[in-house]
Each structure stands twice: as structure tokens, then as C-alpha cells.
Amino acid sequence: MESFLKCCKALGDGTRFAIFERLLERSYCVNALAKQLYVTQSAVSQHMRVLREAGLVVGEKRGYHVHYSVSQDGLDEFRRFVQELQPRGQGAKGCCGGHSSEENEWPSQDPAAQKSATGR
Q1: Residue 29 is part of which domain span?
Q2: Sheet strands side by side (includes 65-70)
Q3: Per the domain annotation, does 49 fall within a domain?
Q4: d(C-alpha 16, C-alpha 28), whole Å
Q5: Chain centroid, CA 116 distance in Å
Q6: 15 within domain boundaries
Q7: Which residue among 28, 53, 90, 95 has the highest number of C-beta atoms inside a 10 angstrom radius?
């Protein structure tokens, strides 16, 4: 559960999500991502650290640069957890056992409506 929450937090940032989307297509180095996203290399590096710690990306040193790509293992684990989030107890009648929608509504805060409902 903790790794799933880390992934959600990592992808909850718009810039990190944009980075992750690009990495789904192919690998990139920090410089290329910074140019595409119009952010500093330092900012991209910090975002990559968060994505790496969440297990969503991996880095591979190529010469002077580290090229990042999506971690297939991390993505598979995240995907499995999301699939397990399907509603449980399908066919259940809800919290009120199948009462009519009128019975499930909150009482009105309008004093005139309360008088007519109670007859007073």
C-alpha cells in the first residue's frame, strides 16, 4: 500500500506526470526533458528523484548522461494495485439497503419545508 501511495503522490504533480508520460514513449536524459518542458535541469533532476524513489523510473548511465525510462516492474505493480481497487460487493443495495431515493436525502434546512413535512 505504501508503494502505491508513493506512486500516487509522485504522479500527482503536473510536471512529474508530464515527465512520466514522455518516458512512456522512450527514454530521455534530464537535459532533453528540461528543454521539452521549459524547466531547469535542476528541477527535472528533483522530479526524477521523486519518480525514482516511487519506483516508477530507472536511470541508466550512458557516457556523461543518465537516461531515464519507465520501470516496467514499478508500472506493473502500480497497475495491479489499481486493478484491485474495483468496487467490492457489486449488486449491493448501497448504504441504506435499497431504500427509495427520497428516504436517502438529507433533511431540509428550510424552516418552511420542515413545517410542511411535520404538519406544524
Answers
A1: 2-81
A2: 28-29, 65-70, 57-62
A3: yes
A4: 14
A5: 46
A6: yes
A7: 28
Count of structural domains, the chain: 1
Per-residue cell: 49: 528523484
Largest CA-CA distance found in the chain, in angstroms, rounded = 84
pTM: 0.68
8 A C-beta contact, residue 58 and residue 52: yes
pLDDT tens-digit readout, 6-48: 888 888 899 999 999 999 999 999 999 999 999 999 999 999 9
- For 40-55, letters b (16+ CB in 10 Å) and e give eeeebeebbebbbebb
d(CA 83, CA 6): 17
CATH at 40: 1.10.10.10
